[in-house]
């Protein structure tokens, strides 16, 4: 169950480069996980056809929280760890599409994968 909770983090991987840069402490993985937990069913269950309003609201909230480069890098690390914990049950294509499906505009179009180097995220 903890792995599934963390899975929702993968969704946010496409949002981490979008926030403005301001002074603030880094996010915790707990914050990332709790905002994206509602996305886990959509990302692991082929029968669910929509990310749902709770998932979209969590992604929006997290998008507003990643205000610094440090936040975005930390969110990237949390998301990658969560995706690894879930393993092959993760639908990466669905994760990549959540911002679009939720109507969240982000200026980041390249998909980030397990090989992404989070320390290069700006």
Automatic annotation (TrEMBL):
It comes from the Eukaryota. GO terms for molecular function: lipid binding. Pfam families: Tryp_alpha_amyl. GO terms for biological process: lipid transport. InterPro entries: Bifunc_inhib/LTP/seed_store, Plant_nsLTP. Coiled coil: none annotated. Residues 1-23 form the signal peptide. Residues 29-118 form the Bifunctional inhibitor/plant lipid transfer protein/seed storage helical domain. Keywords: Signal. This is Bifunctional inhibitor/plant lipid transfer protein/seed storage helical domain superfamily. It comes from Arabidopsis suecica (Swedish thale-cress). The lineage of its organism: Eukaryota, Viridiplantae, Streptophyta, Embryophyta, Tracheophyta.
